[in-house]
Design goal:
Elements: H1 2-5, H2 8-32, H3 34-43, H4 46-50, H5 55-75, H6 81-84, H7 92-116, H8 123-130, H9 133-161, H10 166-180, H11 184-204, H12 208-228, H13 237-240, H14 244-268
Helix pairs in contact: 2-3, 2-5, 2-9, 5-8, 5-9, 7-11, 7-12, 7-14, 8-12, 9-10, 9-11, 9-12, 10-11, 11-12
C-alpha cells in the first residue's frame, strides 16, 4: 500500500506550497498598492480582486514554490538523483525519434482540446503572465522541469521502482497530471500528454526527454500568447488547418503516426535496468 500512498506526498507538497506562496504574494501586492486593493474589495468584483496580484508576482510564485517543492520532495527519497537527470543512460538515437512522434501526438491533442471547447478559466492569467520575462521562464522552463520531477520521477518513477506495473504507474501518473491542472480546458490534453510523457520517461529512465517535450509545448504556447496577447483567445488551430473535417482527419492521421513512432521507440529504445525495491 505504501507504494501507492507515498506518491500522494508530492501532490500535497506541491499544492500546499503553491497555496501558501500565492497568499504571500497576494498579500505583498495588496500592501504595496493598498488603495487598489481596498477599491477591489469594496466592489466585490472577483476579477478586480484577482487583479491585485501582478503577473510578475504570480510567475515568481510558480517558479519559487516549484523549486522548493522539488527540494522538499527529495527529502522523502522520492527522487532518484543518480538516474533522474543522467544524460549518459539515454539512448539518444531512439530518444530523438520518440520525441518527434510525441510532438506529432501533442499536435493532435491540441486540435482535440480546441474542438472539445471546454472552459478555460485560467486563460486571462496565462496571457498576462506570458507578457513578462519571468513568466516565460516560469511557464516555459522552470514549470515543466518541476512537473517532470513531481509527476514522472516522484510518482511514476517511485511506483515502478517499488514494483508497480509500468502501465499502471503510467496511467495513474497521467490521470493525476491531468486532474491537478484543475482547468477544464487543460485536463484532457494534460492527461493524454501525461501518458506520452510517461512513456518517454519509462523508456529513458529519467526526466530529460519528457522535460524537453514539456518545455517545447509550454514555450510555444507562451510565445503565441506573448506575441498575440488578447487576440490569442480568438486564434483557431482548427480554422488554420481548414475547418472541422480537416481537423478530424488531422487528429486521426497524427494519432496513428504518433502511435506508430512511439511503438517503434518502445520496442527499440534501450531501457535502463530498473532497480526494484520493496522496502
Amino acid at each position: 500500500m505504501k507504494k501507492y500512498l507515498m506518491p500522494l506526498i508530492p501532490i500535497l507538497v506541491f499544492n500546499i506550497l503553491q497555496a501558501i506562496g500565492g497568499v504571500i504574494a497576494f498579500a505583498i501586492d495588496a500592501i504595496s498598492d493598498i488603495d487598489k486593493a481596498t477599491a477591489a474589495f469594496k466592489t466585490h468584483d472577483q476579477a478586480a480582486i484577482m487583479g491585485i496580484m501582478t503577473p510578475e508576482a504570480l510567475a515568481w510564485t510558480v517558479a519559487i514554490t516549484g523549486v522548493i517543492s522539488v527540494a522538499i520532495i527529495s527529502l522523502f527519497k522520492l527522487i532518484n538523483w543518480k538516474t533522474a537527470v543522467n544524460f549518459k543512460q539515454v539512448d539518444w538515437k531512439w530518444a530523438i525519434i520518440g520525441l518527434v512522434g510525441a510532438l506529432v501526438g501533442v499536435f493532435a491533442s491540441d486540435i482535440l482540446e480546441e474542438m472539445l471547447d471546454l472552459p478555460n478559466i485560467l486563460e486571462d492569467q496565462f496571457i498576462s503572465i506570458s507578457q513578462t520575462t519571468i513568466g516565460f521562464i516560469a511557464i516555459g522552463i522552470v514549470g515543466p522541469i518541476v512537473e517532470e520531477f513531481i509527476f514522472r520521477e516522484s510518482i511514476l518513477g517511485y511506483m515502478t521502482r517499488k514494483g508497480v506495473n509500468k502501465w499502471t504507474a503510467i496511467i495513474i501518473s497521467a490521470v493525476i497530471f491531468g486532474l491537478i491542472h484543475g482547468n477544464p480546458a487543460q485536463i484532457v490534453f494534460a492527461g493524454i500528454m501525461g501518458i506520452v510523457l510517461g512513456i518517454l520517461y519509462y523508456k529513458t529512465g529519467n526526466i530529460i526527454l519528457p522535460a524537453i517535450l514539456h518545455m517545447i509545448n509550454n514555450s510555444v504556447s507562451v510565445i503565441i500568447m506573448a506575441s498575440m496577447g488578447e487576440d490569442s483567445k480568438d486564434a483557431s488551430l482548427v480554422d488554420l488547418i481548414g475547418g472541422q473535417t480537416s481537423a478530424i482527419i488531422n487528429i486521426i492521421a497524427c494519432s496513428v503516426i504518433c502511435a506508430a513512432i512511439l511503438y517503434l521507440f518502445w520496442k527499440n529504445c534501450k531501457t535502463p535496468k530498473l532497480e526494484i525495491s520493496e522496502e
